[in-house]
From TrEMBL:
CDD domains: Hr-like (cd12108)
Organism name: Mycena indigotica
Signal peptide (from-to): none
InterPro entries: Dimeric_xanthone_biosynth, Hemerythrin-like
Domain Hemerythrin-like, first and last residues per copy: 69-165
Pfam family, one: Hemerythrin
Source organism phylogeny: Eukaryota, Fungi, Dikarya, Basidiomycota, Agaricomycotina
Protein name: Hemerythrin domain-containing protein
Length: 244
């Protein structure tokens, strides 16, 4: 009865993806996550570390690119760049307008412009190379990635520094909690679940995997590795850590 199997599979998929939206974010790390003044910086630092980790993974491959698996490698590199774009979009739409009411975030807003220009060039290069693999030159992509590296790392560190708990005391705990929720709502509505969540999971180091990202167990251990990651499984073999 193939039709029953199709409906059953579709049902499992819908149920599992629905869990991403329906399960509330849990407080999993009492020290870092239960204090909204600490949680914002903690989550931001861990998120930024994902991008740094992928950057450090991508660069050595560009010295000896996997030409027999180029589309997957470029897909992985694209997942890194597009994840940062999505992260920045969420900050510009939700977080920075909120913070800018009481804290000077003009430096970060300015840095986004430079970083986004670099990311846009990388994405354009990757898309062309995937469409016409014969045009791919690893040295050119390496140059684009390395050129972005300085401004990107500077920005990622600056932002975490400016989210220090003592700098956020101008907000109430309720305001910060609400801003964090608003940010998650935006991210859930705008990200590609087949890219963003697997990317996060396979760049989260083993010592953090039990508690971060602060998703329910079913999402981390079932939905991401078994439902979302397989769609682009060729990408994730380049990532530094396991998907589960
Ligand atoms: Fe950020």
């Amino acid at each position: 009865m193939p039709s029953i199997r199709v409906f059953a599979s579709a049902g499992v998929l819908a149920l599992a993806i629905g869990a991403v939206y329906l399960f509330p974010t849990r407080k999993v790390s009492p020290t870092a996550m239960s204090d909204p003044y600490v949680a914002l910086q903690y989550n931001m630092a861990n998120t930024h570390d994902l991008y740094k980790s992928a950057y450090k993974t991508i660069l050595p491959h560009l010295d000896n690119p996997p030409l027999d698996d180029l589309d997957n490698f470029l897909g992985y590199t694209r997942a890194w760049a597009s994840s940062i774009v999505g992260h920045h979009d969420s900050e510009e739409a939700v977080l920075f307008p909120f913070l800018s009411k009481k804290v000077d975030f003009s430096k970060e807003i300015e840095q986004h412009v430079t970083v986004e220009k670099g990311l846009s060039e990388i994405l354009k290069y990757i898309d062309r190379a995937r469409a016409e693999p014969s045009t791919f030159e690893a040295a050119k992509l390496k140059n684009l990635v390395e050129t972005l590296g300085g401004p990107l790392f500077e920005h990622l560190d600056q932002e975490v520094e400016d989210l220090a708990p003592e700098k956020l005391k101008v907000f109430t705990a309720e305001e910060l909690t609400q801003a964090g929720k608003d940010l998650m709502v935006y991210v859930r509505a705008h990200s590609d679940k087949y890219v963003t969540l697997p990317f996060m999971r396979c760049h989260t180091p083993p010592e953090l995997k039990e508690t971060w990202p602060p998703f329910p167990w079913i999402v981390k251990r079932l939905v991401v590795p078994w439902i979302l990651a397989p769609k682009n499984s060729g990408y994730w073999k380049y990532a530094p850590y396991d998907m589960s």
